[in-house]
């Protein structure tokens, strides 16, 4: 882990219990500060219902796109993005793999799929958090995997209320101003939002400024919400609990303030817009 290198943890993320919408927006959303929110989703049916048996009963024969990794790290490439990771399979086969007590040679992850579009049957088991403007919300998405999966260092272009429904996850977060020390892939690539660095084994000859990087660290427990502001870099580790077969999370996305496109990663994204428009008109 990063602790074997001489990096500085800025601090652990603050936890706050059941803040009002006004408190959240004043103290965290407006100043763009991550925070863990507790005690808000205790009444979700998903916390008790979303077991392997329950989900398999609902979606047994449904064909789903599953990401597959040889080494537990779910990363894309410059030319194909994440297309090379995808494999179609029946949902029941996917769950059986995760529930298997035998150590499998590959790692499997259902990543960031729209609940209203792909899994509308379980939409009623969750509730829209009160902290974002409803007009700015984008479809909630679901993640299902097992312990050991790693989403490598990246940023997202939307604000995120990351909600842990089963098991727990570890996060390392870096603020957007550190982008130059995190060496993103080229803005013209299929994965411009991802870092080139393997932060478990960083090549400091190739990426020397990474030594300057400072990060926040936290573990998001079952029933907690982590607010990740848009363009904050983060690496995510799925952790395991022998009493729970699955590691399940739900993202609630919201469009960020236009001012966030003035941050270093925001400017990189904005610079792509002319190229994207030209590409769209050529098709």
Write the topology of this structure:
Elements: E1 8-12, E2 15-17, H1 21-29, E3 35-38, H2 46-49, H3 52-59, E4 63-69, E5 86-90, H4 91-99, E6 107-114, H5 115-118, E7 137-145, E8 150-154, E9 159-166, E10 168-174, H6 179-182, E11 214-220, E12 225-228, E13 233-239, E14 247-254, H7 264-282
What is the CATH level 1 assignment?
Mainly Beta
Q: State the distance separating the first and last CA atoms.
A: 45 Å
Poorly predicted runs? 1-6, 275-283
Mean pLDDT: 87
User: What's the gyration radius in Å?
Assistant: 19 Å
Strand order of the largest sheet: 2-3-12-9-14-7-6-4-5
Which fold name is given in CATH as the topology? Jelly Rolls
Report on the structure:
The structure is a single chain. The protein has helices at 21-29, 46-49, 52-59, 91-99, 115-118, 179-182, 264-282; strands spanning 8-12, 15-17, 35-38, 63-69, 86-90, 107-114, 137-145, 150-154, 159-166, 168-174, 214-220, 225-228, 233-239, 247-254. By secondary structure, it is of the alpha+beta class. It has one domain (2-282): Cupin (Jelly Rolls). The chain has a 9-stranded mixed sheet with strand order 2-3-12-9-14-7-6-4-5. A 5-stranded mixed sheet has the order 1-11-10-13-8, with no helix packed on it. It is globular. The termini are far apart. Mean pLDDT is 87; it is low at 1-6 and 275-283.
